[in-house]
Design goal:
The chain is an alpha/beta fold. The relative contact order is 0.10. It starts with 7 loop residues before the first helix and ends in a 12-residue tail after the last helix.
């Protein structure tokens, strides 16, 4: 990390220390006088972890998008201090979701501007003026994402925007901030936020001069391991966990057959294992790829329980395998779950699909289907069973759930992949379980 505000001798020492082996570095630090050692300890570049370092210039907007507890606030405060140290008289806008949050998090919090000031650096907060006086004549001014008019007029060199995804009046606040960011030769804005699917965030991500850093709650080596373990167990794989812990931007698709809220509502623990006698039927749905270099092979296991509810059990989908390769995965999935039926779409490959699957396991209980109509048309009656509480997700299946959320009632697909292969495989299996005209007895191959 570049640190032009440090004396040249200090920068040279930092460079030398980074190149040393740990034992040699320890011996060198033990020889330093207290003042020099304190200067090195307080240098931010020693404490950063992946994602907190400022990206190389040039950029105009840097988005630090991460989960909670990643260290976004510390990175933001240190970035503001870096701007204060490198140029005299800098004016910085501090924009929080509310004025209260801007004060509690960005200024007076444990990782805010006051706490991150170094020994000898002057910093004073004037609440009545919503201003922070900082070293070298620097000033930081507090603003709220609820009050865009307060940014109409003031000029700044740089801006730090915190939790932008929570701003109630995000677009006008951002526009007024950008129109006033006109001091100095290279105004820059740092945005630190846990993402939500708000239009402003997507708009910022499409700007010229935009750069992004991603991070997870689990990237911070200073966080409690007990905390990490607890939130991983409670939220890993769920929409909340992917957004709030992993920092993923999870879009809501208008007209989705599986809205995110429905997916979360239908999530439940796995009620029983493959051999617990709970399952009336288990079906493996297969959506074969047209070629080994094309789309994924969707392979999804679903089961109908003794309680009359259909469950999504496992996602075995694979990509990049030969027909023989994915056929072996299908056979393995059927064996693992003691499946009584494998339903495979034969539009891509015709009877070859059946041949390659039977070559993998000649006793495979195979049913080939020729798909008619669009994927969404087939999916609609299955989605209705989730709405009625007759189908559930027995666990978390992020890739499958993203594809299901991308299927819409209008027939379009807006998911993360070119084709919803996992979703189609899941729909084939659930249609067999829920919409088949005659349930079949469960058979286990010996």
């Amino acid at each position: 990390m570049s640190a032009p505000w440090l004396p040249s001798r200090t920068r040279a020492l930092l460079k030398a220390l980074r190149s040393m082996a740990p034992a040699e570095r320890a011996r060198m630090l033990a020889t330093l006088p207290p003042a020099a050692l304190r200067s090195l300890v307080e240098e931010w570049s020693w404490g950063t972890h992946s994602g907190q370092d400022e990206p190389p210039l040039p950029w105009r907007v840097w988005l630090l998008r991460s989960g909670r507890g990643f260290g976004k606030t510390r990175a933001g405060a240190e970035w503001v201090w870096a701007r204060i140290r490198e140029t005299e008289g800098v004016r910085v806008a501090l924009v929080g979701a509310t004025l209260g949050e801007a004060e509690r998090v960005m200024v007076t919090g444990p990782s805010g501007l006051i706490a991150t000031a170094r020994t000898g650096e002057a910093v004073k907060y004037l609440p009545s003026k919503r201003m922070v006086l900082m070293g070298r004549g620097g000033r930081a001014f507090l603003y709220s994402g609820e009050q865009p008019e307060a940014l109409r007029g003031p000029e700044h060199h740089h801006a730090w925007c915190d939790e932008l995804a929570k701003w109630r009046r995000g677009d006008p606040t951002w526009d007024n901030l950008m129109l006033g960011l006109r001091l100095g030769e290279a105004p820059r804005t740092l945005v630190t936020t846990t993402p939500r699917p708000v239009p402003l965030l997507r708009r910022i991500m499409s700007l010229e001069g935009f750069t992004e850093t991603r991070g997870s709650t689990f990237d911070n080596p200073h966080s409690s391991e007990a905390f990490k373990a607890a939130v991983r167990e409670a939220y890993a794989g769920t929409r909340l966990g992917r957004q709030e812990l992993e920092g993923e931007l999870i879009e809501e698709v208008e007209g989705s057959l599986w809205p995110r809220a429905l997916i979360e509502k239908c999530r439940t623990p796995l009620p029983a294992g493959p051999e617990d006698g709970f399952w009336r039927r288990v079906v493996i749905g297969v959506d074969p790829p047209a070629s080994s270099t094309g789309d994924s092979c969707g392979i999804v296991a679903c089961g109908l329980g003794r309680d009359g509810i259909a469950y999504v059990l496992a996602d075995f989908s694979v990509a990049g395998l030969s027909p023989e390769g994915w056929a072996q995965v299908v056979a393995g999935a059927a064996e693992t779950w003691c499946a009584d039926r494998v339903v495979a779409e034969k539009n891509n490959g015709g009877e070859m699909v059946g041949s390659v699957l039977r070559n993998a396991e000649r006793r495979l209980p195979l049913k080939l289907i020729h798909a008619v109509g669009g994927k969404s048309v087939r999916a609609e009656p299955v989605a209705a069973r989730f709405e009625a509480g007759e189908a559930k997700f027995a666990g978390t299946f992020p890739d499958l759930e993203d594809e299901l959320a991308g299927l819409t009632a209008g027939g379009a697909y807006f998911g993360p992949t070119r084709s919803p292969d996992r979703a189609d495989a899941c729909v084939w299996a659930l249609r067999e379980l829920l919409l088949s005209p005659r349930p079949e007895p469960r058979i286990r191959a010996l």
